[in-house]
Structure formats: C-alpha cells, structure tokens
Amino acid sequence: MPAPRTSRAALPAHARLTTALRSDTVSGALLIAAALTALVWANSPLADAYTSLRDLHVGPAALHLDLPLHAWAADGLLAVFFFIVGNELKHELVHGELRDPRRAVLPIVGALGGVLVPAAVFLAVNAGAGGGALGGWGIPMATDIAFAVAVLAVVGRHLPAALRTFLLTLATVDDMVAVLVIAVAYTSGLSLTALGLAALGLALFGYLQNGRGPAVTRVRARVPGWLLLGPLALTSWALTHASGVHATIAGVAMGLLMRTTTRDGEPTSPSHRAERLLRPVSAGLALPAFALLSAGVSLAGADGFWTSGITWGILAGLVGGKLVGILGAVWLTARFTSAHLNPRLGWPDIAGLAALAGIGCTVSLLIAELSYADPADLTEAKGAILLASAVASLLAAVVLGVRGRHHRQLAMPSTSGMS
C-alpha cells in the first residue's frame, strides 16, 4: 500500500517554497521575469542605476576576485546551475537515458553541428565586410542552457522527459566547445599553471567522492561532506576562474564527478543530497540574479542595426544556423549509423529543440564583448543576440507547444470500444 501523501498546505512555509523552486516551470518563470526586468530597466530613465549595480565591484582583491556583480553572477552563481546540470547528466549517464551510447551520441553530434554551422553562416554573411566584423564568428556558436531549459519548462509540460535530457546534453557540450573557443581564440592571458591546479583540485574532488579503500572511507565517515568538499569546490572554481577559462566549466565538471550510488550505509547518494540542497538555491537565487545582472543590454546607439552584417550574421547564425546544424547533424547520424532517437521522440521534437538552441545570451554576450572594441559594433552584436534569442524562443514555443499537445493526446487513455 503506498504511503499517504502529505498535502502542500500541511508543509511548513520553507518546505513549500523549496518544493516550488524544484519545479522547472517555477524556475523558468523566475528566470524569464528577471531577464525582462533587466532589459526594461537597462533601457529606462533609471538605466544609470542599473549600470551602477551590475558594475559594482565586490570580493577580495588579494585573491584577484574583486569582480563586478555581473561577473559574480555569470561566473560564480551560474556555476551552481551548471553543477546541477552536470549532476543530472551524470545520473542519466549511469542510470538513465544516456546509458545507451547509440542515444548519447546524438545530442553530442547535434551540439557539434550547432557550433560549426552557425559560425560558418556568420562568416558567409560577413565575407565581404570590412573592419573587424569577422571577429564575431564565435558569437552564434553558444546556446544559453539556462534560458533554453527555462523556456522548455514553461512551454513543454507534456513533452517526454527524454527531450529535456537531450537538451541538457546538447547545450552542455555546446557551451563547453564555446568556452574552449574563448580560451583558444579570444583569450590572450590563459594561465596553464592555474588550469593545472584546478584540474588537480577536481581530480581530488572526484577521488573523495568515488575512491575506495580504508583511508578515503574513514575520511568520508568522519568529516561532513560539506566541510570536506565545499572548500575544495570553491578552490577549484577560483583556480578555474584565475586560469582565464569560464569558471562554469568547474561547476559542470564537479557535477559529472558526483557519486550516484550509496555506500557505507548511506541513506541516499551524495548526488541526490547535493541536488536536494542546491536546486532551490539555483532556481531561487542563482538563475534570477544571473538573468537580472546579465540580460540588461542597452540598445541605445544602434542606429545602423538593420544594415549591419554583424546583425544579420548573428540572426542568421542563431536562428537558422542552429536549426539546420543541429537537426541536420542528428538526422544524418541517425540515418547512416546505428545511433537512434528515444522511441518517444519524433523529428518534430528535435526540430523544436534545435530552434530552442538558438537562444544565445550569456556566453554569446561574453564573446561579443571580446570580439568588438568599437561601441557601435558591440551594440549591434548585443541587440542581435537578444533579438535572435527572442525569435528562437517564439519559434521553439510554437513547435514544442504543438508537440506537447500531441504527446498529451498520446498519453490519454483510449476511449475506443467504451459505451
């Protein structure tokens, strides 16, 4: 007999709040609301107050962490979200959808197609452009995983869970490639020493999670997990940031290193405990703060917006290039290899997801700032990123909304033969 369910009204207020924040729909709504607030605020008469807030420096200068608030949001708070993503992917790799390599390969190949084709589209549009327009070729490569997951949660309540896993895998690989491109093509001060120390810290993090033997077992038994792994996680994050690589990579890596099985009499796995603790923090604090401090792009000074090759290269790359690149790569791989989609997914689902991947916000904005020193070029690039993201969101919402109704009808019990 199943255990009796406790009503939401019977739960304490904080428990009801954390339960709500674990919902993708609530998290997505908060993220989108914060982004819209930021955009309106940055283009209002109070824009100076917004700029002062996002550029306010806090943190220890001695550790090279005297950063503006928008950098803390994008590099620090967003790492919590990426940890959740990495942790969820690890669970899928060990226990779920991605255990089958023939399914896991499709989102990975799709991510590569969604990186290469948009970059090629941007270069083609700007082939005859003068100046430094070609420097923005990396802008349409990145998918903003936070916003993409948020939109999927809002419009895709009846879609198969496998589609969300597909998106998480695709967008994570996509962002990792984009971060690698930043490190190689857009960063001149990469510190291999800091990167090596960060790798050692991550290796120790993984060993303390997954290692066997009496010594590590005694350490895990005697030292609380937060006290053992928390400082190590912060140190690894700080070293990754100091290396010049986008620090959210440390969050993904730590999530992928989490142990998803129980040992030594544990009631639940470390992966499960971390997810229960950090998902409400990610949804209620990290993602809204990141959106509020990152999405406030001023559109003032974009006089040549509609005639700029930068504008059209980004629009074509994010909206068209992502759709063609992802859908084409996945279809070709499934057509000519043994890889295959989850049986619950259809090609229209993948098309909607490919359109959704055209949301490029955080990493795209970062690459734009690294690409263009001219304020006019930068304004055009930022405006195009926001416009492309809006168009991609609307297109994906239409396709996935239709598919959601389709999947809901399939899930309804058949009434045929009933009087």
UniProtKB/TrEMBL annotation:
The lineage of its organism: Bacteria, Bacillati, Actinomycetota, Actinomycetes, Kitasatosporales. It comes from Streptomyces chisholmiae. The chain crosses the membrane at residues 26-47, 67-85, 105-125, 137-156, 177-208, 228-257, 277-297, 309-332, 353-372, 384-402. It comes from the Bacteria. Belongs to the NhaA Na(+)/H(+) (TC 2.A.33) antiporter family. The keyword Ribonucleoprotein does not apply. It is found in: Cell inner membrane; Cell membrane. Na(+)/H(+) antiporter that extrudes sodium in exchange for external protons. NCBIfam families: NhaA. This is Na(+)/H(+) antiporter NhaA. Keywords: Antiport, Cell membrane, Ion transport, Membrane, Sodium, Sodium transport, Transmembrane, Transmembrane helix, Transport. It catalyses: Na(+)(in) + 2 H(+)(out) = Na(+)(out) + 2 H(+)(in). Pfam families: Na_H_antiport_1. Gene3D superfamilies: Na+/H+ antiporter like domain (1.20.1530.10). It is a multi-pass membrane protein.
